[in-house]
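Thread: quick sanity check before group meeting

JM: Hey all, I'm pulling together slides for Thursday and realized we never actually wrote out the predicted structure for the chain we discussed last week. Dropping the sequence here so it's in one place. If anyone has concerns about the input, flag it before I start.
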Amino acid sequence: MAVLKLFESELKVINIGLESFKDSLDDKGVKAVQADFRPPLDHDPKLLKKIRANASKISAANKSALGRILNSKPALVGLNRAINVIPGMKKDLILHAGPPVKWAEMCGPMRGAVMGALIYEGLARNEKESEKLAASGRIKFSPCHEHSAVGPMAGIISASMPVFVVKNEEYGNYAYATMNEGLGKVLRYGAYSPEVIERLKWMETVMYPALKRAVELLGRVDLKAITAQALHMGDEVHNRNRAGTSLFYRAIAPAVIRTASGMEQAASVLEFINSNDHSFLNLSMALSKACLDAARNIKYSTVAVVMARNGTEFGVQLAGTGDKWFTGPAPVPDALFFSGYTKEDANPDIGDSAITETNGLGGFAIAAAPAIVQFVGGLAADAVGYTMAMYEITAGENNAYQIPNLDFRGTPTGIDVVKVVEKGILPFIDTGVAHKKPGIGQVGAGVLSAPPEPFVKAFEYFANKL
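JM (edit): ok, ran it. Output follows.
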């Protein structure tokens, strides 16, 4: 009898399969909703039992890790040359983005950026000499992340380059990042032409001393406060930094004017910052690095403290597994490409800038910056959807970084590798796109999901160590 009544009533469907099934029901006028269901990532179910047997320890450790991330107080306290402040920096050492990679395995844009750095340092005179030197074994390579540093895209830092010095005033650790060159044909995208080197030299000889004196006069610049306000103004401080750069400009401009060697120096430096909406990007990366490093080495924690890409591999590090890298192939972003370029020209995802997502910013805060989804023809509702999904895989919500469009809800913060594997939801990242060949530079910008392999490997390693 109950079955007969079921067929006499209005049919309502919950579809957990392909969305095309729901589309067919919609066409027939049948009421249906699409369940956002994802199967878990492929893993050994026995390991999940070990995780659950240690659930209380893991929960307490993740609460501690998240607390250190949220309680951190990152501030810009100075500028200096890399060799003077970055731990372990040497004249024959080049730092790069992402997990470890040898010259032979480096992608095109990273090779181009290394070659440019060698020319910039005066160790080579041209493309041919720099390529020969890079392959000779006389130059050492190491990830920025293993030296308390971060670098966007290729992420190259060499000994003479000026860097921002960011201090976590709550826990005393430091992070470092170069100054941003702007967009297009720049070193971080693998370009090394004379105009690229000339711009870097101008930044070293004109911009660096001006900003160094300005920060010395100010004493500190509160980066956490700038970031929190920038989110209220339409940034997510990864791919969109217009508000963050404007706020940084307001903070630094009077001090630049007061301490510059002359009116021309002050004007040129401020004009450069004003014309480069991504000026704040490197600072948002350094502040995120400073916050996340404070959560390292917390036993039993499954919270990610690094997501980084070298253009070949995507790497992850956890708070509870020390400095060990877990890697997988780097995907190619879905992007809006500059005129004349297509996805065929794009290099796989590259850069340390996913440290912003790891800190609850960037793609995790994209609901605060819906204009970014226009890169791939998306809607404002898509931006909200991306952020909402990230709440499912994080340890908590940010107490400082809030999203107006979500009634000022804190951004999802503290990626939990166990939740990523169990729920099959991968971290969402917005990013720039470099040409796969060295010397060309930026060809677009877009979005992507992190690959599953690093998270499964991290999950399995962690569980086996319990």
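AS: nice. The first strand starts at residue 12 and ends at 15. Residues 276 and 334 are 24 Å apart (CA to CA).
JM: adding both to the slides.
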